[in-house]
Design goal:
The chain is an all-alpha fold. Helix content is 76%, strand content 0%.
């Protein structure tokens, strides 16, 4: 039986070291549920859907109360999408900054 050359052994040892390091980092980091991603999509979806649907209902009401040459529902749906996008963007940035903050045990 032949032994592997030294270079291949070094590569294997390095791969095992990196794997152990990733495992250690995963264990020491804040544990997130596997469903965390789904909840994120839900929050983002609701933050866009609610202002959009609200804008549509408000637009239908405004069309009856104060008719204009433009479509209130279309204008307010677009406004709701923009507002919802801003809300979602802010929420994502806030969550991202939470993820990247160092915990006290990581500081020297």
């Amino acid at each position: 039986m032949m032994n592997k050359p030294k270079k291949e052994q070094d590569k294997a040892a390095e791969a095992m070291r990196r794997s152990a390091q990733r495992t250690q980092q995963a264990r020491s980091s804040k544990n997130l549920s596997p469903l965390h991603g789904f909840s994120t999509f839900g929050i983002i979806g609701w933050s866009i859907a609610v202002p959009t649907v609200g804008g549509a209902f408000l637009g239908v009401w405004l069309d009856k109360v104060a008719p204009q040459s433009f479509s209130w529902p279309m204008a307010l749906i677009l406004g709701g999408i923009m507002i919802g996008g801003i809300i979602a963007w802010n929420w994502i940035n806030k969550e991202d900054s939470k993820q990247h903050q160092k915990s006290p045990k990581d500081q020297p």
